[in-house]
Each structure stands twice: as C-alpha cells, then as structure tokens.
Amino acid sequence: MTITSPCTGICKLDDTTGWCLGCGRSGDEIAEWRGLPKNNRDAVWEQIPNRLEQLGVTCRRLPWTTEDIRTFVAESCEPAGGTWVMGVVGAVAEFVVPSVTKVEVALQGDDVIAHTKNGAMRMTIDDNVRAVTFDPPGLMAGPRVVLAVKRERGRLPTADGVADLGVDERALMSENATRLFDLGLGRKEARFCVRVTNGSARQALERVAGLPPSQSLPQIGAPLVSESPTRVVDTALGRIEVQGQIPTVATSMPAGPHTHLLPDQLATQRALPVGMDLPIAYLPGAVFYPKV
Q: CA separation (Å) from 3 to 67, 76, 96?
C-alpha cells in the first residue's frame, strides 16, 4: 500500500533550513514525492519528526493511509482501549469502553460504527480524513491522535440559537425519542444536540427556540438533567451519542460514554485544547486519548 503524503496544507519553505513549515520536507522532496521509491519516502518520514522539532512545529501528520486510519479506529474501540472525544472545548461527548463492558464494532463501507452500553459512535473515514498528532514519537502509551477533515468536504450546518432539527434520521441508538434539538453553539467545528420525547425537556426547548446558550441553558438545564435525553455531538467526521443519567455536581462522572457541557470553557471559543491548533486547511473531527 502506498504511504500517504506528509502534507498538512501549509506549504511554505523555511528560509534557513529549506524545509516546509507544514510537513518538514525539502522543496526537492515535495516535488519528487510521487516518484520516489518507497524506501526513500520511508527514510524521509523517519526524519520528519526531528525536522519539525527543529522548526518549532508541533503538528505533524502520521504516515497512515485511509485504510490504516479505519483499522486504528476499529481497534481502538476495544474495552479499555482509550477514549474518543468529539466536540469543542466545553461541549464534548466521550466514547470510552470500560474494561469489563461489551462493545460491538462494525465496518460499513467508509463508516466505522461502534456500540456499547449507553453509547454509540460513527466515523466516516474517507480520503478527506487525515491523522495528525501533536506529541513526540516514542511515548509509552502512544500519541494523542487527531482525526482532521479537509474543509472542502463540507462543514456542519450551524445554529446560533436552540433549533428544532426534526426527526433524527441518522440516529445510531434505537429509542422512542426521535426529535433532535441543536443547542445552538454556533460553531463550525461541532454541534451539541439532544434527542427528546414529548416530555418536559422538549417543551422547555421549544420555549427557548432561537435563544443562544447563554440565555437558554439556565432555562433548560433542570428539565434536561431530570429527563436526561440522549446527547448527540456531531462533527464533520461523524457523531457520538450518549445515553444515561446526566451527572450533577454531586455525582461522579460515569466510567463509560458521557458528555460535558461547561459554559465557562465554551467561552474560550477553542476547538481543541491549548497546544493542539490545526492548520487552517482542516476541521477537527475527533481526538483519541490513549489509555494511560
């Protein structure tokens, strides 16, 4: 299988070293990449982490093909394999499978779909998806892996206030609740939704339609916690769905799939944690944190 290009979408050569500030290759290596023998390309890949470190560049692309990424996602969903996170800082869903919990993983075309107790995840891994990391090679637990999506694949529809999205035709978990409400974060990287029945949570959501989170959350927080509907976080890569009781300040976070919705952190407007800034050519899809 042909190894993929290290290109990250930043194509600017450093005046001192002659290496690209995005991928760490020289101008000649970039120009000749497609025609280079595999051994030569492998040798360049081995030098890239050191070159990028010298350039002060933290984001580097992993030498994974589309099939490599798909395989990694499928294998990482095993019990105690680590945690997948989708969303933005302050509004995330986490798909994690505790060591004694059953998980089912299916490959359907470009999709990797996983189901476990109280959670499900789907990622569409095609040629528009790139695997990058901000960690140096050689870490004992393995690097954090960011699956980024080329912006040209398309962004999610955004809403700046609570919006009724209608019946959720893409639901991964079967249940009576079908109506999907976007909580209106207004972010291009992800949307945080809830899937409700005809109960008090839906009534509260309908009353605050169009209001931004700063105004709507104080009014819908109590009925959402009480009813604890399915939480759905969508990104350009896929989605994570989480069921089960929403924990309060007095209760501990569940060991399995769960969500966080924290207004103070949302106010930072960050898509990823500090030190994990993607090139502008990409949108964040999901982050994998290996089990420590």
A: 11, 21, 30
